[in-house]
Sequence to fold (651 residues):
Amino acid sequence: MSGLPPVTADTFPRLLAHHAKVRGARPAMREKDLGIWQTFTWRQVADEVRAIACGLAAQGLKRGDHIAIIGANRPWVYWTIAAAQSIGAIPVGLYQDAIASELVYVFQNAEITHAVVEDQEQVDKVLEIKEQAGLIAHIYYDDPRGLRHYSQPELTAFEKLRAIGREYDAANPGFFDAEVAKGKSSDAASMFYTSGTTGHPKGVVHTYAALIDRARVGCEMEGLSDAEEVLAYLPPAWIGQNIFSYAQALVAGFCVNCPEAAGTVTSDMREIGPTYYFAPPRVYENLLTSVTIRMEDASRIKRGLFKYFMGVAERVGGRLLDGQAVGLPDRLMYWLGDLTTYGPLRNVLGMSRVRVAYTAGEAIGPDLFRFYRSLGINLKQLYGSTETAVFVCVQPDGQVSAETVGPPVAGVELKIADNGELLIKSPGLLREYYKNPAATAEVLTNDGWYHSGDAGIIDAHGHLRIIDRAKDVGRLANGAMFAPKYIENKLKFFPFIKEAVALGDRRDMVSAFINIEMEAVGNWAEKRGITYSGYVDLGSQPAVRDLIRECVEKVNADLAREEKLADSQIRRFIILHKELDADDGELTRTSKVRRGFIGEKYGPLVEAIYGGRDEQFIETQVKFEDGRVGKVSATLRIMDAKTFPAARKAA
Fold:
């Protein structure tokens, strides 16, 4: 059974009702619990949503109210979103790893009265901020472990909420359907908070019309149907996860699978065999790191075969995927490589059945992108943001490039402002920033253009190339372009580099802070008999510094071949003494580098690099997982890297 729902199903609750009617017995969601996959049909999901919605209404949640939802990917998270929307309330997803102090502003700004959370950890955080947040009347929890002796009157088990809802539904049989009928496509459907890289996060208000339109466009472009299988493993609070595992699932009617835990995602992927897959670059980087580690442990013969066939794949894999002409000898060698290398590798990655794979959230390194396509994985770049409901540009099949994010999708117009900033017009634009008309006016023009904040170029084929965030694109002292994110992505292609921060705006050279990938570098060191006591000790080993220097110099060799970026070669770098962490303010909750904050926090290191020193002592405050605050310190070595002459432009 396939085909998209009628356009009259113009809210998510009405889409759910449509699927419960036309494909009620088909799987809508699966959840792996205690090693066993539990399946919920569309009819069962609709029944659960009805009970939760009636329970929330009985507990005082009203049309227009905001409700906080904090948890990992579990069916109850998506059911609660649909339940709130069914009675006209607006769900606000929050990151489950956010610390209590980060929740305060959102609870105050959105005037949260009801919160549905996963477990004791989340209950404790909400209770901690209750006095500051002020309006919290009800906290519902799904997992009761550790909460047996909690006696706060605002606490209610999620199971009890559903029981209250069933009683309310029985006593008011027409209530639920009447509430769903009141919903309009122009109503606010959800609110998503931005990452807050430069201050307080902003609440992005999206209507049903915007979210459903963009979800439908993506489904139509890729031919998605109810036969797809999707793995929901990224934070539900992120709009990307919401679009792919909620909005598009409700448009196309496909099945969403929730893994057992973060540590079982890859094995759960192998069991499910998703056909439609989405991940930000960091996930693809981590998967490549795991492959590299496995190959380090393999025999010499296996390593040799892997190296040889990956060479074949890099040469012809992408061309075969794009349907281009490839000679018979190369086709035969690729076929043999698929039997011995690429097929088993796709299986290890859980991507054997992937028909369409996207990467988005931030730019992906070209080398990393080509690696996956060379394996026969139809990885494509997607461009969008929270404010645009994700779908702005997508690479069509046969028009895939590592350098662009594709042309605009249906309904989208693009133009480049005089200052190089990308402007967007789309049915998927935000309605407003909640209670922030000044910020709304900054990004939305009177004639409907959205200021993306990204610096871009539209090529002769109509494809968009994103250079960097407009505010981050700078100039070196000699006037040459400096695009830090582009440089950082090249560094992070190497499995030994987990994170990088490029510095150089208005300076006479580019430098970098680097986080090593502990598992990959540790495995590399152990095979060479290098002993170490922890992260700081490992990063200070001379052999490890030389390993990272090799990676930096390979990036420099690549940059030397790019006319506009040849001056951006990295001349000095430091391996940091700690991993950059969102809890320490160095990353956003979506793992984006807060470059300005880092430059200030590590000011002594910046001064040492540009002052010509060879080492620098640094002491840094850190926040541990249990909430304690401490300090880590080290004397860090500042390394020089070889640079290369700029390639001459062809005459």
About this structure: The radius of gyration is 25 Å. The mean pLDDT is 92. DSSP finds 22 helices and 27 strands in the chain.
